């Protein structure tokens, strides 16, 4: 049986931002991500999540100045030698501030922008726009100005614009940071749907640990540019002391399990449950 | 984004001018521009302005047009006042009246009226084009005739950035007011500039990364989502515009008898009344503008 090949591979990647920064934004990153993975990137601000994500489509090192060491291979292509516009066909990017990603006069034109650059035919564009608007739930808003949409709608439009390029990987950098609770739920469910139904590889930097524990199959914890933990949500969140020491939140059910153990009220074995459903399953025997 | 209004933007409608392809409209506008810059003849400029006004009424954009014209016209009136006392004409000047310590010159009155009509003719035609065409259609048409798409994008982005920056200015001014700082006037605007422009730079940086991530700048064949087609009538209007404005421009350039600056005379009463009305019109506008700014 052949070994499963990663679609994204970081090999000893270190990056220093320009301007004489002595401290690297990310250092010695070795990471393999496989097709269909839903990866949650956790870490405080400045942990290196955004820098790591920008390496995936080659914005680092091709567009952002700095010193780059190592290799990032995406679907067999070295991002160092591949223009970002080429990588755009494989990697869709969604950033934290939706308004800063929009530039066109209408929703339809915003989605078409990337396709126009790649020379899609008119019919293909119309078909794709209908399809991606359907996926993100913005049907009927084709002629609206992107700047007249709510924060959640704008972010879903950014996702639609990324999806229109038919990427195999969707990278999202704190996509819900400027969005209200309803908008957050919409974005999480769109990402989960793409991962589940289209087998799209999703890499999402996010602070909502409960949601990440429910959707992601891989959780990566970063701190000061390094990957400290990498594994399934259960494996990662069971490192309760370390995660708390880093100042990160844990899923409430995980924290609850840990407190029960600490207070000798129960003896819950690691890995701890990370979602409500898994907790109910585990505690059925105790209760 | 509420409360943000771009004063010059498309006014939806279904007139023949609205339905027309933007290219003939652009050609006519540039033709009128060339004609206006080629002559000082007030009859030619007046006719161009009058036809522009007819198109404004016909395409039912009158109220939107007036919102801009009511700002532009009083400001342009200063041309009459200034030109009448210091004409942009070679000396000698013919004195026809006195206005306080200033002499009013024949050539100045002519020049003032001519410049005012030139500005009004050009802006009226430009506004007909802008207010009856979807911006995306204009940019798509320009792209079709070979305008680089990066330049097109710059134009689209500039149009988008104006209301965004207006909005951000409003937010910063409100923040200043809430901290008991001055919230209106020049003294309030100056400190707002730094956060607004720093924010704009950050926005542009983020946008450039986002665009690059969407293959913007790709070197291959490009396509266009917006479909703007040229009908036979569009070709006809375009040819008519080319011939009409081209011939008119040629005519005003070669026919020296059209320079009426020396032959056209104004009575002293007319000259003084005109200068006085123009000055009062401008001052009334300034007073209204200051009052509006203070009450904001």
Description:
The complex is a heterodimer of chains A (287) and B (296). Chain A has 287 residues and is α/β, with parallel strands linked by helices. Chain A has two domains: 8-250, P-loop containing nucleotide triphosphate hydrolases (Rossmann fold, 3-Layer(aba) Sandwich); 251-287, no CATH class. Chain A is 38% helix and 21% strand. In chain A, the strands form two sheets. Chain A has a six-stranded mixed sheet, with helices on both faces. The longest helix of chain A has 17 residues, at 181-197. The mean pLDDT of chain A is 89. Chain B is mostly helical and 296 residues long. Chain B has two domains: 7-133 and 230-296, no CATH class; 148-227, no CATH class. Chain B contains ten helices and two strands. Chain B has helices at residues 16-19, 22-38, 42-58, 62-85, 106-132, 135-144, 149-178, 186-212, 232-254, 268-295; strands at 95-99, 102-105. The longest helix of chain B has 30 residues, at 149-178. Chain B is flat, with a radius of gyration of 23 Å. The relative contact order of chain B is 0.16. The model of chain B is unreliable at 1-5 (pLDDT under 50). The interface between A and B is large, with 43 and 35 residues.
Task: Give a short synopsis of this structure.
The complex is a heterodimer of chains A (287) and B (296). Chain A is of the alpha/beta class. Chain A has twelve helices and ten strands.
Give a quick account of the main beta sheet of chain B: strands, pairing sense, barrel closure. 2 strands, antiparallel
Number of helices of chain A: 12
Secondary-structure class of chain A: alpha/beta
The strand line-up of the biggest sheet of chain B is 1-2
Can you lay out the helices and strands and say which pair or pack?
The complex is a heterodimer of chains A (287) and B (296).
Chain A: E1 8-17, E2 26-33, E3 38-42, H1 49-56, H2 59-62, E4 66-74, E5 77-78, H3 84-87, E6 91-94, H4 107-117, H5 122-136, H6 151-163, E7 169-173, H7 181-197, E8 201-205, H8 209-215, E9 218-223, E10 226-231, H9 233-237, H10 240-245, H11 252-262, H12 276-283
Parallel strand pairs in A: 3-8, 3-9, 6-7, 7-8
Antiparallel strand pairs in A: 1-2, 1-4, 4-5, 9-10
Helix pairs in contact in A: 4-6, 5-6, 6-7
Chain B: H1 16-19, H2 22-38, H3 42-58, H4 62-85, E1 95-99, E2 102-105, H5 106-132, H6 135-144, H7 149-178, H8 186-212, H9 232-254, H10 268-295
Antiparallel strand pairs in B: 1-2
């Amino acid at each position: 049986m052949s070994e499963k090949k990663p679609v994204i591979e970081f090999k000893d990647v270190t990056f220093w931002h320009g301007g004489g920064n002595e401290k690297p934004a990310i250092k010695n990153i070795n990471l393999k991500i496989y097709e269909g993975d839903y990866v949650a990137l956790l870490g405080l601000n400045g942990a290196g999540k955004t820098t790591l994500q920008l390496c995936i489509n080659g914005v680092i090192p091709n567009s952002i100045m700095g010193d780059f060491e190592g290799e990032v291979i995406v679907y067999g292509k070295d991002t160092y030698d591949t223009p970002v516009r080429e990588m755009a066909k494989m990697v869709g990017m969604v950033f934290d501030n939706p308004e800063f990603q929009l530039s066109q006069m209408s929703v339809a034109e915003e989605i078409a922008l990337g396709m126009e650059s790649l020379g899609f035919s008119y019919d293909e564009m119309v078909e794709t726009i209908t399809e991606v608007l359907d996926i993100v739930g913005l049907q009927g808003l084709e002629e609206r100005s992107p700047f007249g949409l709510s924060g959640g709608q704008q972010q879903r439009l950014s996702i639609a614009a990324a999806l229109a390029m038919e990427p195999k990987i969707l990278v999202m950098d704190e996509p819900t940071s400027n969005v209200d609770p309803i908008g957050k739920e919409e974005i999480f469910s769109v990402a989960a749907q793409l991962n589940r139904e289209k087998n799209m590889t999703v890499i999402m930097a996010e602070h909502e640990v409960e949601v990440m524990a429910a959707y992601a199959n891989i959780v990566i914890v970063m701190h000061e540019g390094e990957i400290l933990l990498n594994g399934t949500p259960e494996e990662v969140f069971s490192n309760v002391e370390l995660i708390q020491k880093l100042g990160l939140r844990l899923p409430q059910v995980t924290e609850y399990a840990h407190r029960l153990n600490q207070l000798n009220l129960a003896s819950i074995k690691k890995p701890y449950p990370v979602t409500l459903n898994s907790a109910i399953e585990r505690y059925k025997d105790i209760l | 984004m509420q409360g943000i209004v771009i004063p010059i933007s498309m006014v939806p409608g279904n007139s023949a001018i609205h339905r027309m392809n933007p290219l003939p409209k652009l050609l006519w506008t540039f033709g009128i521009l060339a004609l206006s810059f080629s002559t000082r003849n007030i009859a030619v400029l007046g006719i161009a302005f009058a036809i522009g006004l007819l198109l404004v009424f016909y395409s039912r954009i009158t109220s939107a047009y007036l919102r801009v014209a009511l700002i532009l016209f009083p400001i342009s009136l200063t041309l009459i006042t200034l030109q009448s006392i210091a004409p942009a004409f070679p000396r000698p000047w013919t004195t026809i009246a006195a206005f306080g310590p200033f002499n009013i010159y024949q050539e100045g009155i002519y020049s003032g009226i001519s410049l005012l009509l030139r500005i009004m003719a050009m802006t009226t035609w430009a506004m007909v084009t802008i207010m009856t065409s979807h911006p995306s259609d204009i940019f798509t048409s320009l792209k079709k005739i070979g305008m680089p798409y990066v330049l097109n994008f710059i134009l689209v982005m500039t149009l988008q950035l104006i209301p965004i920056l207006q909005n951000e200015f409003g937010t910063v001014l409100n923040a200043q007011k809430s901290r008991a700082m001055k919230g209106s006037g020049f003294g309030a605007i100056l400190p707002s500039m730094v956060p607004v422009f720093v924010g704009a730079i950050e926005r542009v940086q983020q946008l450039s990364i986002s665009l690059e991530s969407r293959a913007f700048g790709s070197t291959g064949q490009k396509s266009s989502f917006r479909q703007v087609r040229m009908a036979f009538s569009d070709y006809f209007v375009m040819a008519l515009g080319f011939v009409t404005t081209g011939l008119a421009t040629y005519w005003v350039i070669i026919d020296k008898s059209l320079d009426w600056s020396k032959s056209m005379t104004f009575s002293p009463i007319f000259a003084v009344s005109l200068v006085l009305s123009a000055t009062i019109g401008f001052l009334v506008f300034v007073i209204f503008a200051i009052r509006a700014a203070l009450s904001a």
